[in-house]
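Supplementary notes (optional reading)

For those who missed the lab, this is the record we used. Protein: Cell division protein FtsA. Length: 426 residues.
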Amino acid sequence: MNRQHITVGLDVGTTKICAVVADTSGKTAEILGFGVSPSTGLRKGIVINIDATVDSIKKAVREAEASSGIKIKSISVGISGAHIRGLYSSGVTGLRGKEVSGSDVKRSMDSAKAVYIPLEREVLHVIPVEYVLDGQDGITDPIGMSGVRLEARVHIITGAVSPMQNLLKCCEKAGFEVSDIVFEPLASAHAVLTDEERESGTILIDLGGGTTDVALFKDGSLRYASVIGVGGNHFTNDIAVGLRITASEAEKLKKTTGAAYERFVDDAEQMEIIQAGGQTRTLPRKYVAEILQPRCEEIFELIKEEIKKCRGCGIAICGVVMTGGASQLNGFDKLAEAVLALPVRSGCPGHINGLKSELRSPVYSTSIGLATYGYEHEVKDAAYAGKVSGLLGILTEWARDKIRNADYFNFNNRKEGGMLCLKSRR
């Protein structure tokens, strides 16, 4: 098998680390194997214990190697967290009345990239949103068109250098080269959104253990994204505190009897819990729903605020797709529809060969997306995204002496923030 067509996605999450091996030599990607290990070295998507994270990465990758029969040397790793930021920029190049060529597009993109990036931040992606040719906006592919002035409008995604370096250091200490770093909502969207959803204006909500990613896709591009510092671990903690049980027992209850919407739980249904002292008690299952529903409603209210920001950009929202392990609570999608007043569906990985039944779950959306993202990702930023070559190789592609001032948009606090959203003119 040609190793050039083998890709490995590594999702380093707050609760689990998952490695997925894919063969991208055919017309569609094929999953060859995967491995999963518990994660104890991260909090809210940020590495807080390097040794623990390294051990978990090794376990997940070894399992993926055994499952696929492939010796893994390099990986594509996902990143998220409240340190992720974005800004909108544009750049112009002259055409002198000739047809637009690939080099013209690159020059306009290079011009758009020449923005001020603080020294403590690094570029992850430069995503083309649209091109404007002689005042005509909404162009997705200008090559071959005639004009005199080409403008590129782009969405630049950056991350803080320190969390990125620590993540890279963990991967390298585990013995693997990092071939790419991908903003996780881009990977998840690749695994669960249809082409029509990416075009029509869809909100992707990825609920992980420590954070919740909110991303808007329109016209095939990422238009807006934010990271909310609340996730599935908060559900577990709420159950543990509310029922006075251990975190491990609370996690088990969340997975087996958890419900986000009280109306979906039978009043007569009972459950057994084991308290900290080892005593067993029988309680109505509705108790768990009564604990979880307020937390779920809080998350949806925070998401609702992010959706308002998207609508403020003039983009119509057609629906919501939810993925991630924490989205599996019974009634979660119905409660989301009630609070958000939008159609909601559960997003599971699909349209990929070799998916075993256990991988067709929202839990593995990000890792599968990471393994297949580089094969045919919708945002055409591969030529412009910063490539990684070792821990000290996180360098911008353009010289900092060419920078110019630009408005920078960042997160205000744990619950608010996002990326600049380009207004829709259509």
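If you only remember one thing from this example: Residues 212 and 388 are 26 Å apart (CA to CA).
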